[in-house]
């Protein structure tokens, strides 16, 4: 609960607000960095969406619909959320009014939560595809269920974004503190302040991060174990010289398949590592801040928030660029449809085999 402020607390708030002001050189450097980040995020996610539209082979795989919906959410983050956050950060104030501040904040929570829930759905889809029998996967991932999961990725975030934020449920009990931080009497500037009370912080963080994180850890842990067990089985059969021909391919390159399975496990570690690195600092701070009288510096909030935004730029590389079919589609698009450029490297006939479990690619490539 916010209490009545004293002169000392007001002076501290004024000093904090004054720190939002950047000098000219800092603004230029920061603007270039943020603009580059936004452009790269837009281009990466846009390329993923165009690839699915132009390549019919990509549209046949259910997982790719989650990847494209994820790209759409991340594209909206880059187009709708990040530019206004960048303008406020570089300008040192918010100049678009209180109503638009609420709308922008609601969109921020909605889109970033949708992005995270898509990552959770991708993890569950891969778990069923790799760790279960093919019949189980077909029963679990029907087109209707995929549509319901995609709908949930967009509907669930609305219950922790527009509904409570526009109704100011997140501000119950801390109205005075929010009003103090919205306006600076020394600089006559206003700010788009988003503070949350304890119930909202706990519920929002659980829905947007901790529950999806738990599901992703469980799913990827099982996939990791499956990949490593498969790699050990291949290695054992190879050393015994009793591996069936389909493990080694026409050239008996069993070591190649074992490398694929091992790399698959490492890829999963990279995916989870990037996700946790980008979002864990923000959501840990989001839960802790209301319990320490909202004493977290704004610089730390800003750094953690933009670290989370960076995840929207990394997702195309982690979930699409690491996928061989998407890479081929990207080359087709960038090379204006000239198939000569897609016949080299990892796409050529020299590597006809990719590891699979239950008929599903485990290498995530």
From TrEMBL:
Subcellular location: Cell membrane; Endosome membrane
GO biological process: adenylate cyclase-activating adrenergic receptor signaling pathway; chemical synaptic transmission; positive regulation of MAPK cascade; regulation of appetite; system process
Stored CDD domains: 7tmA_5-HT4
GO cellular component: endosome membrane; plasma membrane; synapse
Superkingdom of the source species: Eukaryota
Topology of the protein relative to the lipid bilayer: Multi-pass membrane protein
Oligomer and partners: Interacts (via C-terminus 330-346 AA) with GRK5; this interaction is promoted by 5-HT (serotonin).
Name by which UniProt lists this protein: 5-hydroxytryptamine receptor 4
Organism listed in the record: Megalops atlanticus (Tarpon)
């Amino acid at each position: 609960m916010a209490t009545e402020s004293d002169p000392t607390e007001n002076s501290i708030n004024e000093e904090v607000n004054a720190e939002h002001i950047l000098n000219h050189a800092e603004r230029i450097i920061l603007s270039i960095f943020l603009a580059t980040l936004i452009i790269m995020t837009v281009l990466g996610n846009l390329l993923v969406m165009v690839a699915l539209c132009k390549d019919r082979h990509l549209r046949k795989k259910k997982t790719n619909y989650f990847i494209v919906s994820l790209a759409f959410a991340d594209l909206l983050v880059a187009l709708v959320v990040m530019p206004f956050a960048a303008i406020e950060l570089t300008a040192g104030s918010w100049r678009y009014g209180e109503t638009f501040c609420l709308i922008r904040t609601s969109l921020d929570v909605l889109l970033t939560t949708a992005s995270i829930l898509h990552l959770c759905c991708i993890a569950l889809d891969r778990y069923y595809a790799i760790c279960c029998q093919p019949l189980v996967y077909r029963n679990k991932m029907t087109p209707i269920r995929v549509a319901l999961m995609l709908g949930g990725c967009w509907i669930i975030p609305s219950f922790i974004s527009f509904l409570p934020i526009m109704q100011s449920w997140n501000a119950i009990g801390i109205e005075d503190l929010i009003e103090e931080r919205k306006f600076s009497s020394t600089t006559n500037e206003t700010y788009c302040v988003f503070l949350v009370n304890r119930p909202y912080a706990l519920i929002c963080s659980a829905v947007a991060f901790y529950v999806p994180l738990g599901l992703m850890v469980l799913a990827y842990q099982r996939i990791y174990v499956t990949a490593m067990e498969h790699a050990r089985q291949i290695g054992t059969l190879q050393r015994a010289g009793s591996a069936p021909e389909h493990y080694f391919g026409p050239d008996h390159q069993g070591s190649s398949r074992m490398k694929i399975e091992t790399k698959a496990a490492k890829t999963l570690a990279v995916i989870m590592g990037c996700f946790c690195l980008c979002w864990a600092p923000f959501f840990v701070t989001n839960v802790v801040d209301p319990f320490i009288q909202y004493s977290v510096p704004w610089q730390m909030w800003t750094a953690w928030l933009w670290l989370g935004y960076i995840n929207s730029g990394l997702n195309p590389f982690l979930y699409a660029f690491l996928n061989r079919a998407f890479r081929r589609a990207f080359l087709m698009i960038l090379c204006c449809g000239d198939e000569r450029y897609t016949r080299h490297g990892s796409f050529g006939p020299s590597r006809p085999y990719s590891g699979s479990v239950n008929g599903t690619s485990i290498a995530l490539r």
